[in-house]
Amino acid sequence: MDEIIRVKNLYKIFGDRPLKAIEALKKGESKNDILKRYKLVIGVQDVSFSIRRGETFVLMGLSGSGKSTLQRLINRLHQPTRGEILINGTDIVKLGQKELREFRRKTFCGMVFQNFAILPHRTVLENVEFGLELQGVEREVRENKARKMIRQVGLEGNENSYPSQLSGGMQQRVGLARSLAVDADILLMDEAFSALDPLIRRQMQDELIELQAKMKKTILFVTHDLDEAFRLGDRIAIMKDGQIVQIGTAEEIIAKPADDYVRAFVEDMDRTAVLTAGTIMQPVRETAFPADGPRTILRKIRRNGLSGILVADANRQLKGYIIADHLADYIRKHSEDKDLTLRKDLISQPTVVTSETPLNEVLKSYKDVQYGPVAVVDGRNRLQGVIVRGAVIAALSEGARTESNTNDADT
């Protein structure tokens, strides 16, 4: 996936003679010290990151962390103090006002704000057309595009309604449809759903996830809500004092918080809804092949101290699971048979999940496990790893990827 946005060493200092603040920051002075000494406000300091084409990238942090300032720098609603903002390879910091206006029209879908920002004297259709109207698009063309976007966001039948006749969620859909109608590459959303009540907010999140699956826009989404960030973001950047302290997927941030600040953010999260089987699975120490004889399989089991063994072919296609005690009893009963072959009923079907299965689903699966580990497979049923109870307990208690050296006999 190629990059559409790259930010390099970006600063935004509010106040006169801002370069003094940059010099002070480089000397190790704090944001608060600089405010007291120079009356300068640090908005963003030395931020570098990139956004991939088609991903939903979330800027997340508390009030005053710099997340909204950073988003406004991305389309130059704020003028950077220093640094580069490369969009499709163009450094927009260097663009003049005329060039910038043209670049914005072609590249950005505009912004979807917390307060909806739709025009009260215009109908739904007229609001959604507005961006296209500013671009000089012919009436018939822009109306057709607007009607298509209205259908996409579930507002069909409300084309002639005014904002005052709509609920908060419907008004937010109008703002979203207006931004999507201009069909640009990048959609900017600043606390877009935070003014909505929880139920409508959840519905709007679902709408956005569904629309993104179809349209594959590049979305830069600002929120102070960790649950929202984890639900929407392909990757999340957590900000503090104008800096990015960690970038990662929800799973990476939950599993490996970068510092105590991030750890405090995520400590109350439901880890089981974010962590996946892939986070806690362990390598398979040994497998049996379908062509292996019973005695060969038992030797593998005993050599590795296992209570059972997964069976997979040369392509790692999972075939089943053999319980050590059952196999040993079978061999004992047929000890005189030198050409003993493996009986099919000794191979049972283990509980199976994929690496993307949330941990809460893994826990449900474990309720039905009577023996052995939970096997982790890919979409083609190829064995990727195993999950043992110790790894689940460690993930829940520590919130970290288990690098266990346990000799759990199920693996």
Give a structural overview.
α5 packs parallel to α7. The chain folds into two domains: 204 residues, Rossmann fold; 121 residues, Roll (CBS-domain), CATH 3.10.580. The protein is built from 17 helices and 17 strands. With 411 residues, the chain is α/β, with parallel strands linked by helices. 38% of the residues lie in helices and 23% in strands. The protein is elongated. The C terminus is likely disordered. A hairpin with a 2-residue loop joins β9 and β10.
Task: Write a concise keyword list for the protein shown above.
411 residues, alpha/beta, Rossmann fold, CBS-domain, 6-stranded mixed beta sheet, 4-stranded antiparallel beta sheet, 17 helices
Short summary of the structure?
The chain has helices spanning 19-26, 31-38, 67-74, 97-107, 124-134, 139-152, 168-181, 198-215, 226-232, 250-255, 260-266, 271-274, 277-280, 294-303, 324-333, 359-366, 389-398, and strands spanning 3-14, 41-52, 56-60, 82-87, 90-91, 108-113, 186-190, 218-223, 235-240, 243-248, 287-288, 308-312, 318-323, 347-348, 352-354, 374-377, 383-387. The protein is of the alpha/beta class and 411 residues long.
